[in-house]
Amino acid sequence: xxxxSGLQLMILNLRLLDLYGFNPLLYxxxxxxxVERRQSKFKVGLVTCIVITVVxxxxxxxxxxxxxxxxxxxxxxISAFVIGWSxxxxxxxxxxxxxxxYVDLMNMLMEFEQxxxxxIDCPNSRVQRWQxxxxxxxxxxxxVSTAGPITQFAIILYQSKIxxxxxxxxVNIESSWGHWIIFAVSLVLQAFLAAGVPVAFxxxxxxxxxxxxxxxxxYLSCLTKSHILQQFKYTDNLDTAVKLYKELSVLVGQINLxxxxxxxxxILMYAISVxxxxxxxxxxxxxxxxxxxxxxxxxxxxxxxxVVIMGLGTTAGFVNKASKKTTxxxxxxxxxxxxxxxxxxxxxxxxxxxxxxxxxxxxxxFVDILAPLISKSVPVEDLSNSSEASFPNEGNGNGTDSIP
Length: 404
Fold this sequence. Notes:
Blueprint: H1 7-19, E1 25-28, E2 33-36, H2 41-64, H3 72-97, H4 100-120, H5 124-158, H6 177-224, H7 238-259, H8 263-285, H9 297-341, H10 346-353, H11 366-370, H12 380-390
Antiparallel strand pairs: 1-2
Transmembrane segments: 44-64, 76-97, 136-157, 177-201, 262-283, 295-319
Subcellular location: Cell membrane
GO cellular component, one term: plasma membrane
């Protein structure tokens, strides 16, 4: 199994997220499926307010600080956290508020791949290759879930006066009790933010989003190398191949439904902006990078976002390219089968012509929303024929004559 190869690491990440106070979903071992849990709305609202406060504090500091007070590297540092927290939390928010869609998607994948891989009879070496990639994706999410909170705790404790965190709050021995209480509350709230959100973000980007995309790419790769798609001239596998391709198309459509509106655009904005700013700060700090363990977060962010950009782009491109080759093979196979058997395959021909290349969409498409009936999966000829059948005598003025 492809998606289930990273299941153990994902369960570990979910337990770590539960330790930090968030439990949107869990894996039921007895039922062998993911189950939605009732998430505390108070915690989600609290962390939302903290993110908004931190982002506004950082923007205010960059905009209204006196000239010369902040160096260019400090401004870039603040900008990295402002953009990172805002876009990262946007990607995590759907998982914390309503995880039902993602639970259904992952359960669908686990049920789908059991019968799918057995049907196509793909070589084990190819399946193991994709299993290794899914495991690597889950392992990277686990490393980020562990290292992210630790480095941010270090920044909060040792550099607490950085504006993107506690801002202008500073205390000393002579400070009042009220000042100390505000400082302590701010410290605890930001520690809560730095612990839970990075783990939830790693789960969303890693096993939930990238893991599902890699699994679909693996299914499509196995289909292209399967004997079903290679032996049209000698066996009658065309119907089975079309059915398997249409099943994958439905799966890709479900993935687009889950991620295209908010999650993937937020992940891309996070990855591109944080990658540029993190790489700049890593080079800028140079020898000062190891003066505080919290600074190790910068190269970690640069490496993490680089892997995310390359992984998502490469996987989406592979799915589109492999699906184009598959549809071309289906059309060639159709002519081979017709030439051998001489049967009338009009229905199958229309079905194959309706098979369009798969696309992982990184944003909403208003054409798909406004015109749901005009889909590439439905031939235009069928639409015109159905219209003529429904209204054969339109224009005769008699409403009863138009009923077939």
